[in-house]
Amino acid sequence: xxxxxxxxxxxxxxxxxxxxxxxxxxxxxxxxxxxxxxxxxxxxxxxxxxxxxxxxxxxxxxxxxxxxxxxxxxxxxxxxxxxxxxxxxxxxxxxxxxxxxxxxxxxxxx
Amino acid sequence: xxxxxxxxxxxxxxxxxxxxxxxxxxxxxxxxxxxxxxxxxxxxxxxxxxxxxxxxxxxxxxxxxxxxxxxxxxxxxxxxxxxxxxxxxxxxxxxxxxxxxxxxxxxxxxxxxxxxxxxxxxxxxxxxxxxxxxxxxxxxxxxxxxxxxxxxxxxxxxxxxxxxxxxxxxxxxxxxxxxxxxxxxxxxxxxxxxxxxxxxxxxxxxxxxxxxxxxxxxxxxxxxxxxxxxxxxxxxxxxxxxxxxxxxxxxxxxxxxxxxxxxxxxxxxxxxxxxxxxxxxxxxxxxxxxxxxxxxxxxxxxxxxxxxxxxxxxxxxxxxxxxxxxxxxxxxxxx
Lengths: 110, 335
Description:
The complex is a heterodimer. Chain A is an alpha/beta fold. Chain A has a domain at 3-7 and 19-34 and 50-100: Transcription Regulator spoIIAA, CATH 3.30.750. Helices cover 35% and strands 35% of the residues of chain A. Chain A contains 3 helices and 5 strands. Chain A has helices at 27-38, 57-73, 84-92; strands at 3-10, 13-22, 44-55, 76-80, 100-102. The longest helix of chain A has 17 residues, at 57-73. The radius of gyration of chain A is 13 Å and the shape is globular. By secondary structure, chain B is α+β, with helices and mostly antiparallel strands. Chain B folds into 2 domains: 3-76, Orthogonal Bundle (Methyltransferase, Methionine Synthase (B12-binding Domains), Chain A, domain 1); 115-333, Phosphatase 2c, domain 1. In chain B, the strands form 3 sheets. In chain B, strands 1-12-9-6-7 form a 5-stranded antiparallel sheet. In chain B, β6 (228-232) and β7 (237-241) form a beta hairpin. In chain B, α1 crosses α3 and α3 packs antiparallel against α4 (64-76). The A-B interface holds A 24, 31, 56-58, 60-62, 64-69, 85, 92-95, 97-98 and B 154, 156-158, 199-203, 205, 223-227, 244-247, 249-251, 274, 278, 285, 324.
């Protein structure tokens, strides 16, 4: 199974639309796209996870890394559109408490 | 006669026999000969040049075009020669790495080996199986005073980085003073160690519990770890063993909530790693309910037999291919 990343940009707002699975095999690809975006001050990175059916702990690690980087660089990282399965692992790991997670429905305006 | 001369002679023999009789047997011998060539590290262009030498001797009046075509072939093989030598050196390197990993894996085994203690009133069962050579799951039992402490941790990422990280956890835990062995305080301490020392996209999930036999109480706290179960014998019911908290290594100032539960005779505490609940079968993921019904199926056996049977069934459901490290621990109060 693969991971597809579609990227849209309006000014300093980047929206990443993910489809597929984020696991040990696809995580490096996500890191390569997402991490550099968090390194510029003022950037807003919105990651839409509605197309993700499976994420493992390595995938979760990429989001932890991106969160730390956005805090260190004064950018902002928002997640939205989680499926139940993905939401569960963010909840279990306590990350819902420290991450900006929008409960918004897929397809809303930025 | 040098090894190379011997090879030339042998090649000449085989080739001339084949050109005369064209038998399958000789062709087959040619195939086997190629293995010998590989053993002697003869590269593809060396073989072509060997062929030219032999053909020159067998057919001294070979046509000029034929002779030239061999020279051309020889040049065209050079690239394959490079690829062959690169393959050789990569293979050597890979063998070296593999033997280093073997050594590291066995060191890890020795370092992290946690004996399952004999603890009178608790019947303890443990199974912990790595998906690859090195296990990213960690469990640890420590008897201190009258009480028993148990820890289960899952280091994200697999393989060597996870294993190294786990050794760090072990030594950090070993060096904590006893008064900090209260589960929520222990997690706070470990969190600070992990936060300072791991790569930014690594983290650790951990459950820590302490059982006190005088009060029959189980004190516990969790750092983002997959919830276990608690079996209530009186109600004959499995409940989730919830212990909320952020994973270790994300934020330095994280605090953890202390939980406690009275354990009655016949009750069970079930701890696991997400390798248990993330089991994937041809029909999709294993649900937590299915784990419970597997445990229920073997509940009358000893704790060790329960965990072994549950593991075997889940392993079979996954086609005997573990995707993630797998750890399952059961503590059952006997008296």
